Amino acid sequence: MPASQSAKDFFRPLAVGAPTPLTEIPFRPSRAIHFFDPSNAKMAAKIPAMVGTVDVLLGNLEDAVKADNKLAAREGLITIGRETDFGPTQLWTRINSLDSPWALDDLTALVEGIGDKLDVIMVPKVQGAEDIHYVDRLLAQLEAKAGLDRPILVHAILETARGMANVEEICGASPRMQGLSLGPADLAADRRMKTTRVGGGHPGYLVRQDPATGDEAGINAARTTYQQDLWHYTIARMVDACAMHGIYPYYGPFGDIADVVACEDQFRNAFLLGCVGTWSLHPKQIAIAHKVFSPSVEDIAHARRVVAAMGDGTGAVMLDGKMEDDASLKQCLVVVRLAEQLAAIDPELKKQYDAIEVG
Ligand SMILES: CC(C)(COP(=O)(O)OP(=O)(O)OC[C@H]1O[C@@H](n2cnc3c(N)ncnc32)[C@H](O)[C@@H]1OP(=O)(O)O)[C@@H](O)C(=O)NCCC(=O)NCCSC(=O)C[C@](C)(O)C(=O)O
Ligand SMILES: [Mg+2]
């Protein structure tokens, strides 16, 4: 909430006739946010059949859509939105950046055309709360005009140093804020990092084992190196800012489509640190995201054992030589609840989770 605003006004609609803002952002499984270019006929044709196979389908209008295709992408998304029954699958979009020639018409046309179908609007290159305030008021006006009965939520991509510095105020700028994603490519450029990739690690970012001896021979001898995670600090900051404001953090894009192994590692780091999902740029990344962002059968089995062993949830017990108490129980409940929420929308996962025997 902006410092100058009173608490009672924070949850008031920003336009007469706009839907009432939500006081809590409900958790909806969104392990993979699958990007497609609605101006690409081949890709767009695949979208209706992808309903139910991925938690979120996102019609991308920003980077990766050619400037000449911006209008076709916007119109294409409206057509797909109107003609497709999305069932349990969420429909999101990424609009063009707020300083671009397209953002205003993106918002106006999408809310009018498919505002009743759109769950979340992703806003790229968010710099501070002022960007969210602009979108917030405009959306309220457009929702009122379109007669919508539920607010469209807003998701910010962190892809500038200023956006990172303002991450907490961005998360708290509006009751519409649903979550954050990392934009590693733009963020790297803005920070003047020396990477040339879309997300993932870098072999030069490492620590090296100490030399066995302090002389030249020891220094030049083979020494094990350990590649470090370039995105650790950024993801951890995002996770804290989101948790503080009751909204949801996501990893983002992994551009090396062929390297499914490193993609899985990067996604898992984000999952373990607290992210609820990631992006998929290519159909083959959906399965990786589902695997990583659904707790494993082993983790659920362990979590359920701890819940059972902890009885009323207080005190300390020994399980397999390890101490469990109120705090480890809370962690286990995070896993158990997530498993229940995912099982409710994913019949395959439900079968696996239901078959777990708690020993
Ligand atoms: C990577 C690309 C070029 C490879 O495209 P390709 O055609 O070379 O791939 P393929 O393996 O040959 O494709 C096989 C089949 O799958 C289809 N296909 C392929 N992709 C998709 C898809 N996403 N959804 C649905 N279908 C898809 C494709 O059309 C083809 O169909 P076909 O068998 O009938 O010929 C392509 O997958 C693509 O354009 N993906 C989306 C890229 C994108 O959205 N990028 C923007 C997000 S990342 C970003 O912006 C950074 C950020 C956050 O801003 C920052 O860090 O700053
Ligand atoms: Mg970007």
Description:
This protein is of the alpha/beta class and 359 residues long. It has 15 helices and twelve strands. The protein has helices spanning 7-10, 41-50, 70-83, 103-114, 129-146, 161-165, 167-171, 184-191, 216-220, 232-245, 260-273, 284-293, 297-309, 326-343, 347-354; strands spanning 32-36, 56-60, 90-94, 120-123, 153-158, 177-182, 206-208, 225-227, 248-250, 278-280, 317-319, 322-324. The strands form three sheets. Strands 9-6-5-4-3-2-1-10 form an eight-stranded parallel beta sheet. Helix 2 links the parallel strand 1 (32-36) and strand 2 (56-60). Helix 14 packs across helix 15 (347-354). The protein is globular and about 70 Å long. The chain starts with 6 loop residues before the first helix and ends in a 5-residue tail after the last helix. The relative contact order is 0.11. Citramalyl-CoA binds at residues 35-37, 42-43, 46, 60, 63-64, 157, 159, 183-186, 198, 252-253, 257, 281-283.
The helix count comes to 15
Mean pLDDT metric: 97
Identify every distinct bound molecule in the structure, by name, code or SMILES: Citramalyl-CoA, magnesium ion
The proportion of strand residues reads: 5-15%
Estimate percent helicity.
40-55%
Which H/E pattern describes the elements? Answer: HEHEHEHEHEHHEHEHEHEHEHHEEHH
Task: Give the gist of this structure.
This protein has 359 residues and is α/β, with parallel strands linked by helices.
Keywords:
lyase activity; alpha/beta; binds Citramalyl-CoA; magnesium; binds magnesium ion; 359 residues; single chain
